[in-house]
Predict the structure.
Amino acid sequence: MAIGPEQGKAAYMEEAAALEITTDSRNDLLDDDGRAKRKGTFVTASAHIITAVIGSGVLSLAWAIAQLGWVAGPAVLLAFSLITWFCSSLLADCYRSPDPIHGKRNYSYMSAVRSNLGGIKFKLCGLAQYVNLVGVTIGYTITTAISMAAVKRSNCFHRHGHHAACKVSNTTYMIAYACIQIVLSQIPNFHKLSWLSLVAAVMSFAYSSIGLGLAIAKIAGGSTARTSLTGVTVGVDVTGSEKVWRTFQALGDIAFAYSFSNVLIEIQDTLKSSPPENQVMKRATFVGVTTTTIFYMLCGVLGYAAFGNQAPGNFLTGFGFYDPFWLVDIGNIFIAIHLIGAYQVFCQPIFQFVENLSKSRWPENSFVTSERIIKLPLVGNYPFSFFRLVWRSSYVIVTAVVAMIFPFFNDFLGLIGALAFWPLTVFFPVEMYIKQANIKRWSKTWIWLQILSMACLMVSIAAACGSVQGLIHALAGYKPFKS
């Protein structure tokens, strides 16, 4: 049947309208690069940052300030916070390249380094980032086990008296923690972690507040702890060499407390494209670092005031196992809940890297590439992969085994912080910013950025030396049970 001009025009308009609707629908589901549309906001990014930053590092800050004293302790803490905020702002501009607003997206820290620097620096970045991420997950396994063992011992002392042996092995709790992480590690990607990060962020505020409250109560009760302007005293608390090593280790502990740059790009990649991701990320970084610095300063300063030069390595366990034992128990439980979520924030980049690499190398292997949708109660449709199940479970088991071999809190945290601080928090952000902003060599800005980088390198080397010495000392006197 022949179609007249008016009918043809009407048909064309209907087809165009249908095509427009289809295109709009696709645009609602996809980003500018064809990937699934991101839904992250300033709030979720801030939660991710707070979850990543306020971790087990807060527990060692009273000890760190005890090694440095009233003058150097708070000053070093503030200096690390300013450096972290400044370098994180530089890194946020490198999420897209070559232009920070309209350039191509970089989905990971390594991608950003490859786009801006390339070559050998890209490989060095990958080594530094993933060694650090693995170390953090091991450290969180250790910390969670210590906190849960502290709850067990607290209840034992409460039932049997303060002079009971109450020996508790951390190994059992490491196994339990690993079992929980095996289940949570099946969460497909970073974009599905917002709810877990929000819960973990609330927990971090909760246990930090409990620690602060207990410290204030101890001070108000007439604490006789001995403090000084320079920290632990040579000839009284430590020898001269121990003072030096502990000072270096304290630098590593504080560096670890601010360690989140290694997942900054991955967090930024969850943000919606409008407003520009770098602007939102800078705001989230400022709020996250400011919030954590306030908590860190309070925990470190008040913890040192409460315990003095004998401040414990773990802030909460220093209150002993006396009344109010239930409040200390709640604080330790909150630590465990927080670190369950924080573990996932740090291990997801590892999972994504290995899975993407495997798919690119074996694209025809059905075990690596295939997924099937299954329906789970309360979860709904879940993309299940046998490869993801086997690989991620194996990773969690290996980190748990390493944690059982090296269950040393302060020394391990200090070493991780020392190894990661300079390359990931300072060096690569500075170098990428210089390249992207076309800063001329030997200009004032270039010179100041290089001075900052070299000064932080010296700090990292010193902190690494102190932490290695501490690990050697801890291994020499290690006993499987802590009484």
Q: What stands out?
A: The CA atoms of residues 102 and 324 lie 56 Å apart. The chain has a mean pLDDT of 81. The longest strand covers residues 372-376.
